[in-house]
Amino acid sequence: MHDNRISLITGESIDRALDGKQRAIIDRIRDAYLAFARGKSCLPHSTFVTFEESSPDRIIALPAYLGGDREVAGIKWISSIPSNDARGLDRASAIIAINDRVTGRVKAVMEGSIISAKRTAASAALAASHLHRDKGVSGVGLVGLGLIGLETVRFLREEFPSIGRIHAHDIDRSRFDRFADTCRRLWPGIEVIFAERAIDALSASTLGILATTAKTPHIESLEGVSDDAVILHLSLRDLAPEIILACNNVADDVDHVCRARTSVHLAFDRVGNTDFIVGLVDAIEDPGSYRKRQAPTIFSPFGLGVLDMALADMVLDEIGTSADAVVEEFYPPHWASRM
């Protein structure tokens, strides 16, 4: 007899399940990337729902199947509404639905924004650990002082415990005090310094993070940024295509990142090929292969749905049978039994 139930898992439960597990999360993300690179997954292109041309609001569907030792399939449905901050709400909200591999029925629905933030941060930290030459880096430059930026610092400190300083910039100066207070509470003794411009933050360290809500490039030059720098371009649309083409480029997946008007997509349109991009797994397995010129290295992760599946599966492991709610008879009886 197959289950007719669906489990519901709240954000609070997910937060508890993943709290303090940065190393385990990074390991899950690494395994997911390796399975993806070896063809043990199905990853259709993400689907974007957009609104008025001038609006930064969007909703994205990310379906995925992750194979290998643990099979998990489902979809993340995530909205990004930057104006939510003024409403006292998070920019992103999401749900993740997980399907039973045998019957195809959805077996769990869970809050998705925490998983989304942590998988993004973990993938950035994983990339930085393989792309950055100085494992004793003491500082990081951060542009965009929201949840993704904060989570990325959290995961970077797992890979680079020596980080004790953040040069932070945001177009909304009022966000800095809140961000700085949070950092000092989480990591007593850390130094948080306001950077007047984005380039000031990026040039202050050899490890940088772009985590904005920009729709179009707004950084036209990396003057002052070290050739040894690694920039984690998480928001994907901050850098002018000329910068992309002048730097070393690593992406989580070359095909996916050349879509949706990312900075890499704009660069691709200029040259008509992807020769300037190296995949993350290739960069991990062949160290140095991505350094094609004396210039900064830019990591542009499009955000693969297999990563969400990997962490959703981890949540199910951690929670076990302790779902917040269970709808016992969600599905109707088999049609033949109703005849």
TrEMBL record:
Entries under PANTHER family matching the protein: KETIMINE REDUCTASE MU-CRYSTALLIN
Organism of this sequence: Lysobacter hankyongensis
The encoding gene: sbnB
NCBIfam families: dehyd_SbnB_fam (TIGR03944)
Protein name according to UniProt: 2,3-diaminopropionate biosynthesis protein SbnB
Gene3D superfamilies from the UniProt entry: NAD(P)-binding Rossmann-like Domain, ornithine cyclodeaminase, domain 1
Upper taxonomic lineage: Bacteria, Pseudomonadati, Pseudomonadota, Gammaproteobacteria, Lysobacterales
InterPro entries membership: NAD(P)-bd_dom_sf, ODC_Mu_crystall, ODC_N, SbnB
